Structure formats: C-alpha cells, structure tokens
Amino acid sequence: MLKGAEFLIKAEEADAVFTPEDFSDEQKQMAETTEKFVTEKAIPFIDEIDAGNYDKVVQLMKEAGELGLLMIDGPEEYGGLNLDKATSMLVAEKVAPGGSFSVAYAAHTGIGTLPLVYYGTKEQKEKYLEKLLTGEWLGAYCLTEPGSGSDALGAKTSAVLSDDGKYYILNGTKQWITNAGFADIFTVFAKVDKQHFTAFLIERNTPGLSFGAEEKKMGIKGSSTRQVILDNVKVPVENVLGEVGKGHKIAFNVLNVGRFKLAAAVTGAAKYALAEGIKYANVRKQFDRLISSFGAIQEKISDMTAYTYASESLIYRLAGLLDNALNKIDPSLPNYYEIYQKEIEEYAIECSISKVFCSDVLALVVDETLQIFGGYGFSQEYPAERFYRDERINRIFEGTNEINRLLIPGMMLRRAMKGEIPLTQEAMKAVNQLMTPSFDEIDESTPYAKEKYTLNNLKTIYLILAGSAVQKYMNNINEQQEVLLSLADIAINIFAFESAVLRSEKYLSKNKNRKAELMEAATKVFGFEAVEAISKAARKVAFFIEEGDNLNILLSGIRRFTKYDATGLLKFKKELAKEAIEKEKYIF
C-alpha cells in the first residue's frame, strides 16, 4: 500500500485498492439501515427542518443514536462500534440526502465527537463520550472567529488561569458554529495567556456562555449556526483537552478526518441530485419529446455520472489506505490514538484532495441538475433549488478549497525537504525524460494500458513543473500561490483519474459483464475531462514560471505528456447516459 503522496511517484496495483465492490455484507447492511432511516425519517421533513424546526433535528439525532449511527468511530469501551473508515464514509454518504439534518449529523459525529475520542483523558471520556455516542448529548466545535477563518491560529479568544489554579477563564467570540443552537458540549479553542493555542471542553449550562441569534444563511437553512460568546467563562482545568499549547494538533488532525468525511457526504449528495435530475428529464417534454432523449441532456447526465464515479472511487480508495494503516496499530497500546493520528496525518494530502475534488464534483452535478430542471430549477417548489443553495457551503467548510489546494503541494514540498518522500530525485528523473525522445509502445491488449501510460506521463509532467517551480522560487515558493494552486489541480486530477482506473481495472479482472463495460465508459469519459484539466493547469504553471526557450521546452513537454487517446468518447457518453436514464439513478 502506498504512503501519503506516493501516488505521484509510484504506480499502485489494482488488487491493492479498496473499492465499493469490496463492501462486506455487514457494511452493506449498515448502508441499507442508514438509507432507510434517512429516506423515511429525514427527507420527508426537509422543508420543516429548513423552516427552523431544530427540535426535529434533535429528535432525528437521538433516533440515529438509537440505531447506532453515532457510534461508528467511537471506541467500544465507551459504547462505540469502532468500525473502519470505509464504513464510516459509507454511512456519511448515505446520510447526505437528508439535507440540513446531514450537516448536524456530520458536525456531531466528526468534529463534535472525534476531538474527545482522539485526545480526551480517561476521565473526560467516561464523563462525556458515551453520552455523545448515544445521542443523549450533542456536540459542537468552536474554532472559527469573526476575525479568523482560514487563519485558525490567529484566534483572539483568550484563556487565563485563575488565581487558585482551578479554572481557566475564557473570553471571546466564536463564529459560524454548527449545532450551536442545541449542542450540549462544545470543543472550544482559545489561547492561554494569549499565546498557547489550547482546546477546552465546555458544557452548555456553564455560566458566562451565551449564543448569538441563528444566522440567516443562503443554504443549509435547517442547520443551527450561531455565534458562541464567552464572557468570563470558568472552565475547570480538568476540561483542558489534550495539552496546553498543543491545540493546533487537535484542530488540524481532526480536520483531516472532517475533510474526508465531508468528501464522502458530498458524493452521496451528488448521487441523490443526479437521480432527481434524471427523473425530471424522464417526465419533462419539449418539442413533443422527453428532454432525456436529447443529446444535450444526455451529455450532462453522462458527465455527471462519470465525475461521480471518479469521486466515489477516490473516496473508497482513500478509505482503504487509511484502514490498512490503522489496522496495523495495536489497540492495547497506551499511546494508541497518538499513533492513530500520525497514521491519518500521513494521508493529510489525500484528505485535502478528497475534500476539494468531491465538493467540486457536487458543484458540477447540482449546477447541471438545476439546468436540466430549467426554469423550474429556480423555483423552491422543486428540489434542484435547494440542492444548489445547500451545495455552496461545502467549498468553504473544513478549510476553503483554496486553502486545501495550497496545502496539497505545500505539504508535498515540506515532506520532500524532510526526506520523507523522494520528490527531488524523482523530479530530476522526470526532467531527464523531458530531454529524452520516447519510442514507447503501448500494449493495447492489456486492459487500461492507455490510461496507465497516460497517468505515468501526467505524473512526470507534475514532477517537472513542481521541480521547475522550486528551482525558480526556492524558499519563496510558498508565496507563489497562483503556481501552487495550479500544481494542486494537476495532483488532484491525477489522484481522481487513477482511482477510477484502478477500480475499473480491478473489477474487470474478475468480471466480464455489463457493469464492467459501463465502468470503462465512465473511466474514459472522466479521463478525457481530467487530462484536459491537467493540460490547462500545466500550461498555466509553465507560463507562470518560465519564458523564452525554457518556456518552449516546458510547453513541448506538456503537449507530449498530456496526450490521451479518447477514441469512442461519444459512444461511451451515450452508453452511460442510456443506462442512467433507464435506471433513473447513479448506476454504480
């Protein structure tokens, strides 16, 4: 199994990749239970919830707790199920069609509970964790402030130790806090003595803790979002979470999982929106024909299906990587969660990739779904309008997509400088390839040989451009955000395309059926789009960093290394659209 970021310098074997086709019976049963709950209990009340009925949200959260849906990531000794990441992501995906309820669910089970799971003391867990895992109590996470969003460490909320040493006294305001209207316990970040970034557990009824009015948001209207105001709030010293001055570890490590779980959720939302769009296309007539019979609509359905396939493939490939790493840790070790967090941090780059790519896919899907609905998509009487409004926050949640895109090449370069990944050596090899004519022949009798050859070339051009950018800017590379953003776009699309290829290849090795044919179609359709996106981003980097002969050399290399034979593209699009239109849903 690959380590973090190694996908750019190594080829992973298809058999080593976890895919949705590998789900166990237990995982499928958990998915069915979740889907039934959301379909019967949440979706019928979406409008009521969006109108501000937070009591309904709380009721649903408690019912979810009774079904065990809040326990998935919790340790068994405190009533949790301690299930794998693949199951956790699958449940997050199935909850997603629940609209604003899914936001409350994700906040509680992710950033609302995991800080305590990973960093809580035995006493803290005994006091709070079982309540959170059953839904008796609900959690919230207070990091953002009016003046600090992406710059989380710029927080101004202060904590001062009382004279008797028994309490920390907190003052400040937290902004955009999900579940604030009904949460029972808050993980709050503050700076001890205005310097040491630290996390605290604060109960709702603590004197001095108050809340602003519900925010009037563009979307996810049924999720509670308020300011959390701390006015001389006395927090017992035993409620410090983790260590004083080490709050950044909690904030950032928990966000890795949060980003990954959000990626799974938006993938579930994309599947749901796609299905609604197809159903509408199958009843709406124009020019005396169902609009689903028009090529323009069919291409939209095909592209949405292919992108969602790539999104789903990426999610469960990453789940497999994490589960493989986490399963090797001995749970009886006293520092189990310390090691656990390091293993998750190993794949922080991939977590950011998943968040950016999958949220961008949902944006594409809901935009095209609304377009299929036409004028009715702009009406609140139809679901596309809500999909459109609710989607937008996902590119801001859990670190904006811009911040995550900057993190991707930034973390890679830091790891390279530490010698953790041989990026520099591989970049030098890539430059040698640029200067050497290629006479490679592709064995087209091997399944997905073209795609794997293309992926190897795409990785080569990434390494060339990253190496050239570092050589030009040296230690100032982190200031060249335009360059880093485009490098991130290349890496993101490589990981997504490779995830789709490996999934399709793995399935084909054991099955020669209609699904295998449709997987090939989805891979080809997405592959074309991914390579086009990579080519554009690569040219941007070249124009950003070079001129003259050096620029011409880079542009020549980009043309050479971003070729992809997408012969039969229209046929593949029509195959995907035909199947999706017949089944009126996401087909994989």
Automatic annotation (TrEMBL):
Protein name as catalogued: Acyl-CoA dehydrogenase domain-containing protein
Acyl-CoA dehydrogenase/oxidase N-terminal domain sequence ranges: 24-136
Alphabetical list of Pfam families matching this protein: Acyl-CoA-dh_C, Acyl-CoA_dh_1, Acyl-CoA_dh_M, Acyl-CoA_dh_N
Residues in Acyl-CoA dehydrogenase-like C-terminal domain copies: 457-560
GO terms assigned for molecular function: acyl-CoA dehydrogenase activity; flavin adenine dinucleotide binding
Superkingdom: Bacteria
Stored Gene3D superfamilies: Acyl-CoA dehydrogenase/oxidase, N-terminal domain, Butyryl-CoA Dehydrogenase, subunit A, domain 2, Butyryl-CoA Dehydrogenase, subunit A, domain 3
The Acyl-CoA dehydrogenase/oxidase C-terminal domain, residue ranges: 245-408
Cofactor: FAD
Domain Acyl-CoA oxidase/dehydrogenase middle: 140-233
Catalytic activity, reaction form: a 2,3-saturated acyl-CoA + A = a 2,3-dehydroacyl-CoA + AH2
InterPro entries the record matches: Acyl-CoA-dh-like_C (IPR049426), Acyl-CoA_DH_CS (IPR006089), Acyl-CoA_Oxase/DH_mid-dom (IPR006091), Acyl-CoA_Oxase/DH_mid-dom_sf (IPR046373), AcylCo_DH-like_C (IPR036250), AcylCo_DH/oxidase_C (IPR009075), AcylCoA_DH/ox_N (IPR013786), AcylCoA_DH/ox_N_sf (IPR037069)
Origin species: Calditerrivibrio nitroreducens (strain DSM 19672 / NBRC 101217 / Yu37-1)
Keywords, comma-separated and alphabetical: FAD, Flavoprotein, Oxidoreductase
Protein family according to the UniProt entry: Belongs to the acyl-CoA dehydrogenase family.
